[in-house]
From TrEMBL:
<protein>
    <recommendedName>
        <fullName>Inner membrane-spanning protein YciB</fullName>
    </recommendedName>
</protein>
<keyword id="KW-0812">Transmembrane</keyword>
<keyword id="KW-0614">Plasmid</keyword>
<feature type="transmembrane region" description="Helical">
    <location>
        <begin position="100"/>
        <end position="115"/>
    </location>
</feature>
<feature type="transmembrane region" description="Helical">
    <location>
        <begin position="69"/>
        <end position="88"/>
    </location>
</feature>
<feature type="transmembrane region" description="Helical">
    <location>
        <begin position="164"/>
        <end position="183"/>
    </location>
</feature>
<comment type="function">
    <text>Plays a role in cell envelope biogenesis, maintenance of cell envelope integrity and membrane homeostasis.</text>
</comment>
<keyword id="KW-1003">Cell membrane</keyword>
<dbReference type="InterPro" id="IPR006008">
    <property type="entry name" value="YciB"/>
</dbReference>
<comment type="similarity">
    <text>Belongs to the YciB family.</text>
</comment>
<feature type="transmembrane region" description="Helical">
    <location>
        <begin position="39"/>
        <end position="63"/>
    </location>
</feature>
<keyword id="KW-0997">Cell inner membrane</keyword>
<feature type="transmembrane region" description="Helical">
    <location>
        <begin position="6"/>
        <end position="27"/>
    </location>
</feature>
<keyword id="KW-1133">Transmembrane helix</keyword>
<feature type="transmembrane region" description="Helical">
    <location>
        <begin position="135"/>
        <end position="152"/>
    </location>
</feature>
<dbReference type="Pfam" id="PF04279">
    <property type="entry name" value="IspA"/>
</dbReference>
<keyword id="KW-0472">Membrane</keyword>
């Protein structure tokens, strides 16, 4: 199925975030009444995002036969903090969610470094064959990246407008991660494991 529909995995990966963004743009200046309760456009977009992420995660599992620990952790935090934002009608919980996700990832990778485990290789090793030293360097860099992204998310949601945070969450954090992965291209080459011919 994946080979016949190569576009499906990226749609499942990024679809929920784009749905959140579009719903927010459509309703950001509106009040949506559901079940006798008034919600802001942001809370309504969160309400739409949660089931979209659940369906997307189940779709990825059906498509690939597996779901990574990071995807499961993200889903759980979205359910908890998105659910709190809806239940308490308070957007702050959902805005804190990326901070907690990035701190969790940094903590896991930091613990892996201390315990001398190569967990990043377990997750990405098949797609990116590298020697152990390369994985250690990448793990250090990713740990620092996740810490920086957690701090940056806190700064943006606490000091800037809601719309700015939505743009930052949808495009800024994704772009930072993309640039980071590209910036490490030399590391991938220097520590690549040559395939036997």
């Amino acid at each position: 199925m994946n080979e016949r529909y190569p576009w499906l995995k990226p749609v499942l990966d990024f679809g929920p975030l784009l749905i959140f963004f579009v719903v927010y743009l459509l309703y950001r200046n509106e009040t949506v009444t559901l079940w006798g309760q008034d919600y802001s456009g942001f809370i309504f977009a969160t309400l739409v995002f949660i089931p979209a992420l659940v369906v997307s995660t189940l779709g990825l599992w059906a498509l690939t036969g597996k779901v990574s620990a990071m995807q499961i952790a993200t889903l759980v935090l979205v359910l908890v903090f998105g659910g709190l934002s809806i239940w308490l009608n308070d957007p702050r919980f959902f805005k804190m969610k990326p901070t907690l996700i990035y701190l969790l990832f940094a903590g896991i990778l930091g613990f892996a470094l201390i315990a001398d485990r190569n967990w990043l290789q377990l997750v990405l090793g098949e797609a990116l064959p590298m020697r152990a030293e390369g994985w250690r360097i990448l793990t250090i860099r990713m740990t620092l990246l996740f810490l920086a992204m957690a701090v940056l998310n806190e700064i943006v949601w606490r000091t800037m407008s809601e719309s700015t945070w939505v743009y930052f969450k949808t495009f800024g954090l994704t772009l930072i991660l993309f640039v980071f992965l590209l910036a490490n291209a030399k590391l991938y080459r220097d520590y690549a494991i040559e395939e036997e011919r």
